UniProtKB/TrEMBL annotation:
SUPFAM superfamilies: Ferredoxin reductase-like, C-terminal NADP-linked domain, Riboflavin synthase domain-like. Residues 44-142 form the FAD-binding FR-type domain. GO terms for biological process: bioluminescence. This is FAD-binding FR-type domain-containing protein. InterPro entries: Cbr1-like_FAD-bd_dom (IPR008333), FAD-bd_FR_type (IPR017927), FNR_nucleotide-bd (IPR039261), MRET (IPR050415), OxRdtase_FAD/NAD-bd (IPR001433), Riboflavin_synthase-like_b-brl (IPR017938).
Amino acid sequence: MRSRAGWTSAGTPTASIPEPFMARELLTQCIAAYPLIEGSTMSARTLTCTVETMETLSADVYRLFLRGDPQQILFAPGQYLMLIVQGNHLPFSIANAPNGDGILELHVQYIAESDNARALFRQLHVGADIEVSLAGGESVLELDDPRPLLLIAAGTGFAQMKSIIEASLALHPERPIHLWWAARARSELYMEWQARQWAEQNEHFSFTPVVELPGEDDFDGVVERIDNALHDRVHRADEASIFIAGSPGMVYAVVDTLARIEPMAKRIFSDVFSYAPRLKGQDDGS
């Protein structure tokens, strides 16, 4: 992986970062402290965090660790925050489960054509302070939900799923989880190793990588668009809680696919439903 000034390759952090989650007892206490009851929200707050570590994950995706006041870092698994850069609020999913140590993990994609991305990356370096507003989003893991989890992500939508997965594995390791992670090419599955590690270490966790472009001969995933892949391989999902993270087009294509499998849309969650709501009657056939 390529590196840049102030960044390190994944796996070689420049500062001490905690394990994905701490001892199960502590994580359970931290997660349980937050109001995850359906429909509940936490008041957003703005605070200053310090860039503690930055890692290169792929050609254009970077992992960022921020540290703030643990008493102010309050969020539920699945929520997002805003980085405030030159007066602009830039949303990023929080990629770690809350563990009470004041650490926030983000997966940041650099888009050269974006003025906001260029401004953000000029500000990011180890030791820099950055303003953060958190937490937002109602697409969160519910502690009392016993259903299996069907998690469907595209690109950096994996960050939201990572937070949910870490919390679920810590609290309810026996809960079935199936993660579908889609990208154009395998190189864009920037933490594929992490998903495979979860699958190896937990018998109730399944991982299906999906790419659109054929490539490596040893790839054991699916080469297809994510909505088509789901249509061909998911036969029922009415008993699951379903989380979808990606672009509005991707999310609604997946929603339409699942609806054709069976009408079971009561337990589908996505932040897209809030910031890019679909017009009544609008679907892939309209």
